[in-house]
Amino acid sequence: xxKKLFNGAKVIFIGTVISKALAYLFTWLGTRLGPFxxxxxxxxxxxxxxxxxxxxxxxxxxVTKFAGHYKVKNDSNKISAVITSVFKTxxxxxxxxxxxxxxxAPYVAHVCHGQAQLVAVIRLFAVSIPFSVATNLLTEVxxxxxxxxxxxxxxxxxDRTFRxxxxxxxxxxxxxxxxxxxxxxxxxxxTTLLILVVIKKKVFDFKIVSDRTVDKxxxxxxxxxxxSSWFLTIMVWFGTILIGIYLSPVEVGLYTSxxxxxxxxxxxxxxxxxxxxxxxxxxxxxxxxxxxxxxSKKLYKVITLIFIIPILTIFLLSKEIMLVLFGREYLxxxxxxxxxxxxxxxxxxxxxxxxxxxxxxxxxxEMYLNFVVSILFVALCVVLIPKYGMIGAAWSGxxxxxxxxxxxxxxxxRRINYDRTAPS
Length: 424
Hints:
Elements: H1 2-31, H2 35-55, H3 59-72, H4 76-103, H5 105-111, H6 116-144, H7 148-173, H8 177-203, H9 212-246, H10 249-261, H11 263-285, H12 290-293, H13 296-326, H14 334-359, H15 363-388, H16 390-415
């Protein structure tokens, strides 16, 4: 499995490095707007991302699981039924939520201490939500077919490239803040359309097929995962939103700049776990899950070795890093950079037990776990953010991520009767 994982990880690593570099450049250019306008952009983006993630209804993973399962069985009608099922539910729901967000944008902006600019930014991002959901669902088809080059290119690289090109165009026209928002929105639309064409011509020419059995399978799998992912998105996005509610767009801009630097750790996580999950689906379908479990301890050690030096560097030089990369305006964000980096380490660790739970259809376990930890996270944020500001948000995330890793690790391996010690 490790040889296959390494081959898949190479593609993901190269593609993810490119995509994160492009994303970093785009966001870094956004920081040049200053903490306030960058905070307005970040708030609008975060709110739309929160709505988009919940619009998926947990069905993105269902595409990978069931399309991958029926691919092994060579049942093309069932694969078409899977794609049809998730679109007629998740995509339609995303349109509904996008309309609601567009209508209630003034209220949302008022709660987040925003001005008229934030209302317009939220409404522009609302338009992108259905396309973002469609992109997430369609790229999972690439993942189900283990075509990781297509998956990473269309999920990340192409969208980021479009953003930069469109940003250049909007800059020539004279737009600043709205140039960034417009580039992000239009790039999602173009990417979705191109993905649809490539899947139909190069991967699988799916048809509209209704199958109640498939619908029931997907709903049974996705609903616990939807509830679970809803709680998880709280941990991912809600901290930024609460900073906007309790503090101001300036603090949102500072916090987002620190988060941006931890995206390098996502390269490691995506490189390992994006190809891992569909392999695990195949192992489960062929009753070979033990081949994965026997290598789990090695995965933990690899992750630790990759993370340890960057985390120590950030611990020693966090303020200097913020000063060099973003300037004096963002120097205050250095105080939270270390906590966010350690949080990223625990988030990456957590992908091992989460992959096991999802692939073995233990989505209800994930749901209960995410519910408890998200309640803890929100409680910590409500207590710590008003008192400690950004630092409170960062440490709330770190504590919650550490707990979710430790508990999910024990639960996953206990449920499959595999006894092992905690990673060292």
